[in-house]
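Continuing from the previous page of notes. For each protein in this section, the sequence appears first, followed by its structure tokens. Read the first protein now.
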Amino acid sequence: MTLMKKTLFLIAALFVSLTAGAQTVTDYSVTTDPTFFTANQQVKVTFDLKGFDTPNQWGDVYLWIWLSDPNDGNPSDQGTWSNTADAYKMTNDGNNQYSFTFTPSALWPNVDPTTIKTIGVIAKAKDGSDTGSGEKKTYPDHMLDVSPEGVLQIQNSVTSPYIGTAGEKLPVTVSTSDTADIYLFLDNTELKMAHSVTLSDTVTLPQSGDHWLISKAVTATQTSYDSTFVTIRQDLTGLLPDGYKKGINYVNDTTVGLVLWAPYKHNVYVLGDFDNWQPKAAYQMHKDSDYYWITLNVEKGKEYLYQYLVDDSIKIADPYTEKVSDPWNDQYISSTTYPNLIAYPTGKTTGITSSFQTAQTPYNWQVTNFTPPAADSLVIYELLVRDFDASHSFQGVIDHLDYLQDLNVNVVELMPVNEFEGNSSWGYNPDFYFAPDKYYGPKNELKKLVDECHKRGMAVVIDLVLNHSYGQSPFVQLYFKDGKPTAQNPWYNQQSNFENPDAQWGYDFNHESPATQELVDSINSFWMSQYKVDGFRFDFTKGFSNNFKPLATDPWGSKYDADRIRILERMADQIWKRKSDALVIFEHLADNSEETVLADYNKGILLWGNMSGAAQNAAKGNVENNQADFSWGSYTQRGWNKSRLVGYMESHDEQRVAYVAETSGLANGDYNIKDVPTALKRIELNAALFFTIPGPKMFYMFDELGNDKDINVPSRTGEKEPLWSYVDDPNRTDVFQTYAKLFYLKRNYDIFSTTDFTYSLNGVTKWIKLNKNNQHVVVEGNFGLTDADLSVDFPVTGKWYEYFTGDSIDLTSNSYMAHLAPGEYRLYSTEKFTKDHIVTDVPTVSANDNPLQVWPNPVQNSLNLSADEDMNRVTVYSITGRVLLDKSFPGYGKTSVAIQSDGWPQGTYIVKVITTSGNVETRKVMKY
């Protein structure tokens, strides 16, 4: 594009100011006629869309135009982005050139013309909306500078920076807004002078080095300058140093090696703080086959930002960077979340930059030999960092890990945490695969999160999106033209293999490509080695194939695909090669014939099993005609040999089950599922008959508190309020405790992972029988709206213990008839199971505040208690039922007690006091 930078320079400031305006050229340009125009002057803007084919597919091309600050607005008659007004249709001048003529002050009649300084323009289709495949129906935006009245303007025709060849004959034209004495210099040498409004010359470039092409215009009252930075490209080759790999190589505290793999490219420069973001000769990278490399001498411990300039026109961040600097989004990251975040080099470059820093403080791992739990005992808690805690940070998750430990979770599954576009997102729009997203905090905080999970016996699985990337990915940008990847792109298909537009996101990886397979393996290896994650949940693995998926017959790619199986098995083998006990989980949801092969392969690939439809029907009481059948939640029902089905009633993708129960639950007389307490009991019922099906299980955050917020408010992927206030509701903590007890059983008693089990899960009443080593369990529940008698043949006679109530039954025959109220569930066992540390009922807070005083509240390090009579016993519970303190006082007790609370995690606590006379008082306390 042609820059119209018309700043009036003072001679003394010339060489400082000229370094700030470097830009790059892409396959289109924007020019104006006249070159300089004022707000009251008619101007013709022309888009030269050379190299682009899509205008022929769009039909007509339209102009989208706006004012930048301080006015910041569109013309009132322009229409909308999806339906631009016909008055803004551009003229087709032929040869892929389109033009539009306007007078700025006429387009914005209500704006003071003297305040119109910059105008933004875009060439677009009438409907500029994305096609759904990631292909854009617009071209990049371009800013036009509006000249102030009466100020001498100057511009030379060579865009800065210019990368030339030795001895090249470079045509140069200098234009001014008024007749002036025009001078052209190469460095300090005057080349030509003319008294005119234009000067033209052909400049012979030097053999090597960095130079300035300077133009100067002088009138009786004004002097103006323009300049172009020129560097001479060399044929620079050299063998890649031993040990150098793609990306950043820390040789020592003062030496860094950078390597870019770029087949079909011809030259690469490094731009950064060290060369003032200009492609200087000293920073041209050496070429070794398809590799470009350079070794830099740097300051120990200093953070540097940098980019690559490829083939003079493509400017990208390092695709292997572990940190980016983002000109659009970093400004919204608070210093609390990410302290001392480096500032973006505004005015020196454009686009995302990468970062390196020697002598970084390494994370000191506390747990170095963690072993993930066995696949068939997994209790997976899926969470989105953004919505889990108000701080939307890794530290915010750490602050609640004791809560998850109380819940008896043994796997924390983090929705995508690598850099994605924007700040607030689910994360399925990835752009950088080796950098944690800074909106969640520094990388060492993520490492600490993994470490803290391991301390508590919880594995960590991260969600990776390797089906596609979005447009800010350097892997996409390096080979990109006409709104899509080029045929030379080593990693991406030019078109999605899905005809269904709803199955197209971003730009589709070509998983048949060796380059993509190498990249996938390096990504997986990186997160396991650098962050010690225990495995991965891979998003939309049905996309890991190049076979075409027709909209009419296979819209979601669910049909058996042998090539896809081969690709996925190869990836799993490479993961297990690096970490033999890694958890490999696919969101596949394909035909059972294909999933059976994957589940039974090698160590067994874990596969998501979506049972949300049955769970929603069960919760709301719609149980007739097998609509609430849980049977497909069992791997045996699917004919699998291994317990690799990750069954779930709710993931991030589905409507919340409690919301469905509360908004569309059925009723019979006084039993109304829409009543919140009743709906929450239905959530417990679901849990009892679903989580006890042998095999790994998963659920989405706050499901354990009866999350009843509509997934579509404010929008499906929009920010949701963390639900920590729900822990104050006894009905919801009942749900929590039911989950915690079930997961305790699953984690601590082998019978809940048995392969010997039967079930009847398709009716109004449901049951499951588990058998192992002469021990037996029977779970039963009533999903109807009325009382029900459920007759189940128990495997043995004798004493059976009911887990939730503590009751027992003595059977003299195998047949037992249970009378179950609607929503009632029971779990009987021949072994009397323990209850872990979780109390059955968290005490209710007393209404009378007088007999017991508790301060300070909130508390930090020490909590004081004072009572009207002697205290005999003090117990402190977490809101989830964990007992933190249980202290008795012998003899006459005490009327004042001090309790150390500095070791308590942040959260809500209940203090229970029993006095010597037997009175019981409770208070709620907040710890911060």
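Done with the first. The second protein uses the same format. Note its length before scrolling.
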Amino acid sequence: MVVPSGLPPATPPRRTGQGRSSSISIIPATPSRSPITRRSEARRSPPQRQAPSTRDGRELESASKLAAYKKKEDIGRRIFGLPPRGAASSTRDSKQHLPQIGVPLPRRCFLRTLVIVGTAVIAGLIVWLVAIFDREPAREPLVIPYREWDTVPYTHLDYSSPIALRPMTRLFHVSKEFGPATMGGLGVMLTSLVVAQTQSGQLDISVILPHYSYLNSIPELKDQIELVAELQVPVVSYRGHVRHVACPVSRLRWKYVDVPDFLGAEVETAEAIQERFIDIYLIGPGKSHPFHVAFRAKDSGDVYSAYKPLRQEWKDLWFASATAEFIGLINAHPTTIDGSSGLVDLVHLHGATNAMVAYYIRQQEAQNHNATIPAIIYTLHDSLDEVEYSNLVSNAVSFLSPIEHQSPLAHLLVTRLPNYVHSAQLFPAAMAVDLADMVTFVSRSIAADITEGRFTFRLQELIMPSIAAQAKRGHFVGITNGIDFTDLSKNPFVAPLLVKRGAAFPRIGSNLLRSSTLEDEALSFVAAKRRAKQALIDALPMHFSEADLRRPILLFIGRFQYNKGCEFLEPILEMLLEAQRTAEAFKDDGQAAHHQFDARLVVMGARNNYPIQELRRLQQWYPRHFTLIDDASDLQSQWGSMIRMASDFSFVPSFSEAFGLVAAEGLLFGAPVISTGVGGLAEFLVPFDKEAKKPSSAGNAHLFQLYGGVGRGEGSGTPGGELSLQADQARPSLEELDPAIRRCNTVVASAIRGWQERAHDWARVDQERFVRRLVVDALELSWHRPNGPVEEFTRVYDAALRVSRARPIGGRAHWVDHHPHPPAATLTKSAPPGIVATAVAHLPIYKIWTTDNEIRRQPQAPIVAHLLPEAANSKGNGGSGSSKKGGANGSGARNKKKPSTTSALKSHFHQKAKAHSTHHEHRKPSPHRRPKNGSKQMTAKSAARRHR
């Protein structure tokens, strides 16, 4: 028996007795005790004297369990090559424990290293495999064949013809932005258009929007969302197999406020505001991988983001395919899907990211002649970014139906896709222009300049042949946008913050220039702007000061982008700082007032491709003259209307503008505009007449030119010349921008001195008339103005229905005869010689090429035959290559696969390339077919070089 070391050693038992007749008893030995201890034990009771022996038993039992546990732990540590617990970390102590461990130290180190290295290799392999299967193929250098197109005289809508639309014609707007999911100008424009169309009562309007995840977290919206249908969206694998992914569709009853008469003095603000509703159909994410992460967004600024494992292009194609499926489902079951009794008559597509919806709708038409197909209207909101938006063909083929499931007309539609493919990239904007019944642009003046050849833009070869073809038929029109007065935060008459602080414009009726109201101080617009400025100084002393009461405020609103003119900000601040130093130098001579030149520049907007660090640096360097209010704080939402009201100028130095909503809103708040006047800005901005008397001078803007001879402004070589901006000038270099910076500073200085003159020398009535005239110019930009946007879009819808109904029933689809594909590339005398290579800037919203790639324009190039990868089931001629099951001599129909969309398209591209290459001296092999020697596939850049 092994006794723990804490117990005394055992001794032999001793005999005790009382005489000879006494019995013998054996007692266990106990440790030796002193006399004092024995006397104290004698006074204890028997249970108390028994306690030490019980405690000793418990200690013995626990010691046995501890020894067994340590033995088991030592065995486990030996298995994994670990030293015993309590071993010292030094080498000497480790060597002492080596005999107990049983594994030599070098071997243990080798095993540990092997385990670590193996784990790292396996983890790296997993990461590499995920990256290989998840990444998008690299984009090739873009090769655009040069094409010619005719300049067409612009033809606008005929206002004399009657409108034949039936009452409550059903219209669906399709967009990525609207209402609660508004990020930029597209969402603002579409929201105001839909609200204005709903007020007219001529159309039954709904909106199709992605179901962004953050909408479920908005308290006033989540209770209004209800499920209405579940779609089965087809997705094609690279082998041609089709799987259907479930897609829920919900309906949101979106509430907005309507202010029909915000100018009426006798109508109270609370009574004028009315609540109305618009149905928004939300296309949800898929219920299987990877579409389950579609439309994840933290807020409205995140709507164009894509989260792994779903690619951005797959997200756009998923929305387009599901939208077309939902429209077809409604027209097939109009009374059971959403409770409405009407079919979808019109589909209005907004932006290039939704252009593929036109293709899917036309595919439904080609598949089923008896189906009810709506008329399609496509609106281009931009002439730069939208044209360049593209999808890789390798991504697009996953959303094309296989050939065996298509009718002959649908097959024809698929085979026409190569007309919109360049360097393995599909450009859907041109395709939507061809497939739409009517095409619109957001500016009438720019639309006229485009068709008549005065306006050029980057990569116009991609879309101009399609626009010219539609313009010849009279199906391309420009419609200038309007201002949304239902957005209370941007209405200076009924904005809640302005009304609460007493800084709103007085409501004096529709005639703002009535002379009887000009002299009444209680009805003064100038006094309202002064009160707004004082309210900002009191509420935001960190951003505004008392000096702002004696100097003008220049307000810049918009995304922080290069093409918005952010490069003009620092030169203005440097000019103001230099003027301040000059005034301080002349202070002692009594001429400080003559040299006083001061202003504050306020920049308010959202971060984008212009570095936010540069703007913050300006805030630090020019604290007296510069105020930055970005989207990182809540100041815009809380004080945005007050800042607009307090501003004295609206600064819009854009390089390109389709409409210029910020400038129009600046006029609405009584602020003249300092701008370049490019694009659609020239439709409502009028430069001040310097020859006329100051108080009666007509005009609403101080304009400066970006380049000589372009636009109407200071230093114009051709006054009243072209209103548009050329493509190569849309993104200028700093050297090219230097003359425009000097002109901008000159115009800004003139505007500031004009403000000082009005403030000190003009009579109060003249000041009041000046501000009210600016507001009147903005009110004339209403959506409901005579022959305005609402009426023009109604006429466009009427024309689109007439074109749609003119197609033969059961015959060839209308896009076959009425929308031929653009002409093929031909060598002409006007073609640019050689190859022109330019760098491509990364755009903030639409994902295109990176700056490392190139754009090349070729006078003539054969159609590239490698746009799609080699199909897995198409080897050799007719699929007669060797395989594991039969190969060329294989028998059995089960080994014979039907051609997939990928292989059919590739075969079609090869045929076109073969026909096109007959005029060459010698036939070149396809640059993307694997050579016979088994070498790797030729790169895209080498393939493009062979066609030079």
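What the second structure shows: The domain at 145-160+173-482+789-817 is CATH 3.40.50.2000 (Rossmann fold). The longest strand covers residues 242-258. We return to this in next week's lecture.
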